[in-house]
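#structure-requests
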Amino acid sequence: MSDCCSTPQPSVAALTENALCNECGEKGRSVPRLTVLHHVKSGNLPRVGDEEYMFCGTPTCPIVYFGASGKVFAISDVRELISSKESGDARPLCYCFGFTEGDARDEIARTGGSIIPARISRLTKEGMCACEVRNPSGACCLGLVNKTIKRLINENQSAAESFIAPVHDCCSR
């Protein structure tokens, strides 16, 4: 596999006006055709064709992939949950190694931290990732994983602090 965590070079399609999502108007991210083929449901495979596709990561947009011809694949056209369009414990964080937001939340609740990013980094260095194909966005997941871990740790700390009983003057004697 390639070094999936390196910054990919943008394709020609990523630099054109057609890089805007047909639905939300936000700029998309170029993804390899193989990524699209890997993620669309089998009934949609004939529609993929030869064109280049962009990934729309806008959370509120139903489109996952769009092409310059106007062809789109929506959330209902793909086989699995899309990280940027989901929330909650089932939300995928790492497609290569199967970590979810729930896995991170549980580990943080138990230990106060998470070794998920370190595990992903180690496995990636061992050449076991395939982010460019397995992740619907075609990108490495570590940025999302680290951001989510930080948010969950802060939420966990805030929740713990709300359970601390207030100190009253009567108790300090």
